[in-house]
Amino acid sequence: MITILSFIFVLGVLVFVHELGHFLAAKRVGIRVLKFQLGFNPTIARYKWGETEYSIGALPLGGYVKMAGENAEEAAADRATPDVKPPSWDPGEFMSKTKWQRFQVLIAGPAMNLLLAVVVLAVVLYRGAEIPAYEDQPPVVGAVAAGSPAANAGIAPGDRLVSVAGRPVDTWKDFLIAVGTRPNREIAIEFVHEGAQTVRQITPLAAPDSRFEIGEIGVYPDVHPRVPSVNPDAPGGRAGIRPGDVVLAANGDPITFRWQLMEAIAKYPETAFTMTVLRDGQTVDLHPMPERCAGKPGCPPSGVWLGIQIAEATRSVKPGAFEAIGMSVQQNVETAGLIFQTLWGLMTRETSPKQLLGPVGIAQLSGEYASIGLIALLGLMANLSLNLGLVNLLPIPVLDGGHIFIMALEGVARRDFSIRVKEKMLLAGFVVLMMLMVTVIYNDLTRIAWIERLMPWR
Questions:
Q1: Which residues 6+ apart lie within 8 Å of 403 measured at CB?
Q2: Residue 288: which of 270, 300, 312, 301 has the closest Cα?
Q3: Termini Cα distance of the chain
Q4: What is the 3-state secondary structure (H, E, C) of 177-222?
Q5: Can you spell out the DSSP letters for 127-166?
């Protein structure tokens, strides 16, 4: 239920803000708005106020604003009716407005989504956040997974990663994005090993059980999870684990992230293993024995625990109001660059289409983020709003950007295209959009385990 409600909330806000932009811009330039609807038919509620009908559809997957005389087909129908004046004679119709006025109406929807992304993310940042301690640090390797592509290529702890596919990587965030968006494809990775600049062709691998096809080569920063608290009566407490311990390794395998330690604990149910921790500057080896905990409060999904809290190595960010807005703008610009890079990668086949999300995937994420808290859900909303705004600006007919593109072509040609030409353009855009929808829905379905089992060709 939380997944459905959070999905309706997130998508409802994004669609409302988008259509509100079109609505306000249309009213501003004097276009009659006939209908403002959230969701698709069948309509479950409607109310008419003035010349506009406001309604809610049963399918919360979109919405629309219907304006008087908003397309060429209506214009032709009006001209074919003797008692009805052509739209060019009616100042309240969309097609009677200048290209500049129509551009304002079309651009307003995506612009409102971009503005929402900045405002919501600024609110999230202003509240304060914990971000990975390594994220903005230079990508110096702290650990290498045994048998990984990086290990096979000769990358070792202490090496400085320089570039991926010819593009410099100045931070761990840059590196992880560059590698993550190129799974199962051989790429050139440049690094400094023992003072010598080296380039190796390496193929990032995607985890077989991952919902998203994200590439990894098996290198980790020099950070480790810590233990904020310990249940003294649980296995971890009895083994001598103390609050403040920093976990370095499990059975000799380096531990960098929280999930790695959780996997290590789940791997040894009712079996003692060696946990190496850093305590007061000294390295200490402990030998806890994880126990099964089904039904106990705080039991992880694996059903195996030590009774310890595990936290990532993070740093706190608590900006002021204006600083939060500046940081929001900066992060949205960076994310927008990543979105365009991903789109380009899809066209050049550098990026896997499995990284795209559809309605089912968005619903799943909404439920997961909602279970964490409202702030996490708002962060997801900001990211989705940015995506929606940018995608709608793409020059694909059917989308707002497609209509703007057609108007731009008409401006260059200094004449309006015929209805037949526009219909062909819209049909081409519709085909592209449907292909994209089929791809993302297929991706969503293959992320659901019971459906995946019905697809033997995968």
A1: 106, 397
A2: 270
A3: 30
A4: HHHHCCCCCCEEEEEEECCEEEEEEECCEECCCCCCCCEECCEECC
A5: H-EEEETTTTS--B--EE-TTSHHHHTT--TTPEEEEETT
Q: How far apart are CA 355 and CA 352, in angstroms?
A: 6
Peptide bond just before 225 cis, omega within 30 deg: no
Identify any residues that bridge with 355 across adjacent strands, giving them in sequence order: none
The tokens 């290198």 sit on which residue? Answer: 219
Query: Phi and psi dihedrals of 347, rounded to 5?
Result: -70, -35
Taking the chain (458 residues) in runs of 10, the rounded mean pLDDT of each run is 83 92 93 90 87 88 85 52 50 85 93 95 88 89 90 94 93 90 89 92 81 83 92 91 93 89 90 93 93 82 88 85 92 87 74 68 77 84 90 83 85 77 71 67 52 39
CA dist list (Å): 165 to 122, 182, 189, 347, 414: 33, 10, 6, 16, 43
Residues forming a β-bridge with 37: 55, 64
Q: Which two tokens stand for residue 31?
A: 């276009």
**What are the residue ranges spanned by the domains of the chain?**
2-125+384-452, 143-219, 235-311
The answer to whether domain 143-219 and domain 235-311 are alike in fold is: yes
Q: What is the distance of C-alpha 365 from the center of its chain? A: 9
Whether residue 66 contacts residue 89, with contact meaning beta carbons closer than 8 Å, is answered with: no
Largest Cα–Cα distance in the chain? 92
- pTM for this one? 0.75
> What CATH architecture applies to the domain 143-219?
Roll (2.30)
- Distance of alpha carbon 173 from alpha carbon 330, whole angstroms: 14
Helix 374-392 to helix 2-28 angle, to the nearest 10 degrees?
A: 50
Q: Report CA torsion sign: 159, 161, 165, 166.
A: negative
DSSP state of 88: G
CATH placement of domain 235-311: 2.30.42.10
Pairwise CA distance, residues 123 & 189, whole Å: 37
Residue type, 356: L
CA-based nearest residue to 405, from 88, 150, 99: 99
Report the alpha-carbon distance of residue 30 to residue 41 in Å, rounded: 27
Give the SS3 label for residue 170: coil
Q: Is 20 helix (H, G, I), strand (E, B) or coil?
A: helix
Q: At 107, list the tokens.
A: 């651009």
Q: Whole-angstrom Cα distance, residue 204 to residue 215?
A: 5
Please give the angle made by the CA atoms of 297, 300 and 304, to the nearest 5 degrees.
100
